[in-house]
């Protein structure tokens, strides 16, 4: 009996010691929360650099050179005198109240979805793009290198608002509605770009500059979100993303191809780019401006499947 009692007590001591040892090991080996270093995805770094290069390159080639101005002057001379500097429905829709409403919708939708990071991204995208466009207009004027008196500003503020607004709305809405928002919004933004050229408000280079500014701010807000945002990832389904990408890509190719063909017919064989005027030249330029916007939306969509 004494032997059994001694063995029982020895077992208890060993067991308690093992438990204490186990607790001690666990106490010293429990993982601690460590700071996770986040990096900006390379695609957004490349997008920001490419946007700045595009903005500067287009301004240099189309605005600061006489040849560039003369080519776009021929397009402006093709605008009918009765419609020159008039307005259309798409242009009339771009107003200060409309901009404020767009920012409000972006913020409200994002907060309803409990995504404060998306609200901040969308608002910053619109406000930042508009502010940047205005700053560029102020510091990068169009020198008078030709005889044409119309000195359109670079880049187009209307197109900047339209494109940035579409990208911001795509940020606010969820993955189920985002494809529809992107398609419908791109059509509207392309319409705005087309009308700025049709009514002589802007040149095609101004549209390209506006798209570059919008893409720059998309890259900025996405880069910031990659580092600081705690919102859960919201990824569009593969089929929906592929369908939208294909539709935008098809529209881009068709529009740019039609623009090139019509512009070539308008120029003709015996005329130069700097002297050609007429309906074909203007229609080609209008389609080209729309194609640039669609191409911008397509690129943004390809880069931005997961927000």
Task: Give a concise summary.
This protein has 307 residues and is mainly α. The chain has eleven helices and no strands.
Description of the structure:
The chain has helices at 2-29, 42-63, 66-77, 89-92, 96-112, 116-139, 157-172, 178-198, 204-228, 238-267, 279-303. The chain has one domain. The chain has eleven helices and no strands. Residues 17-36 have low confidence and may be disordered. The protein has 307 residues and is mainly alpha-helical. It is globular, with a radius of gyration of 29 Å. Helix 5 packs antiparallel against helix 6 (116-139), helix 8 runs parallel beside helix 10 and helix 9 packs parallel to helix 11.
- Overall mean pLDDT stands at 84
Q: Tell me the series of helices and strands, N- to C-terminal.
A: HHHHHHHHHHH
- What structural class should be given to the helix and strand makeup? mainly alpha
What is the general shape?
globular
How many individual domains? 1
Strands, count = 0
| Radius of gyration computed on alpha carbons | 29 Å
Distance between the termini: 73 Å
Residue windows where pLDDT falls under 50 for at least 5 positions: 17-36
Count of alpha and pi helical runs = 11
Beta fraction of the residues? under 5%
Give the biggest sheet. none
Helix content: over 70%
């Amino acid at each position: 009996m004494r032997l059994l009692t001694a063995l029982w007590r020895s077992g208890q001591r060993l067991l308690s010691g093992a438990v204490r040892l186990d607790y001690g090991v666990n106490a010293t080996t429990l993982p601690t929360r460590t700071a996770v270093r986040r990096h900006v995805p390379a695609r957004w770094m490349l997008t920001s650099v490419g946007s700045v290069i595009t903005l500067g390159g287009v301004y240099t080639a189309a605005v600061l050179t006489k040849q560039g101005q003369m080519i776009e002057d021929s397009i402006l001379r093709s605008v009918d005198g009765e419609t020159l500097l008039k307005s259309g429905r798409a242009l009339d829709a771009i107003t200060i109240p409309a901009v404020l409403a767009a920012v409000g919708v972006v913020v409200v939708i994002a907060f309803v979805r409990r995504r404060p990071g998306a609200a901040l991204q969308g608002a910053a995208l619109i406000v930042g793009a508009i502010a940047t466009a205005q700053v560029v207009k102020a510091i990068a004027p169009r020198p008078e290198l030709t005889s044409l008196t119309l000195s359109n500003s670079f880049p187009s503020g209307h197109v900047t608002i339209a494109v940035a607004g579409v990208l911001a709305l795509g940020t606010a809405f969820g993955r189920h509605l985002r494809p529809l928002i992107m398609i419908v919004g791109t059509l509207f933004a392309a319409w705005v770009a087309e009308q700025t050229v049709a009514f002589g408000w802007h040149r095609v280079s101004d549209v390209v500059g506006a798209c570059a500014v919008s893409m720059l701010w998309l890259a900025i807000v996405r880069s910031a979100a990659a580092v600081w945002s705690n919102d859960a990832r919201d990824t569009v389904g593969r089929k929906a993303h592929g369908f939208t990408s294909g539709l935008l890509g098809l529209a881009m190719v068709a529009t740019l191809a039609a623009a090139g063909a019509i512009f070539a017919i308008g120029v003709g064989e015996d005329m130069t780019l700097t002297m050609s005027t007429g309906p074909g030249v203007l229609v080609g330029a209008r389609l080209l401006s729309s194609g640039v916007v669609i191409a911008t939306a397509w690129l943004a969509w390809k880069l931005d499947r997961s927000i």
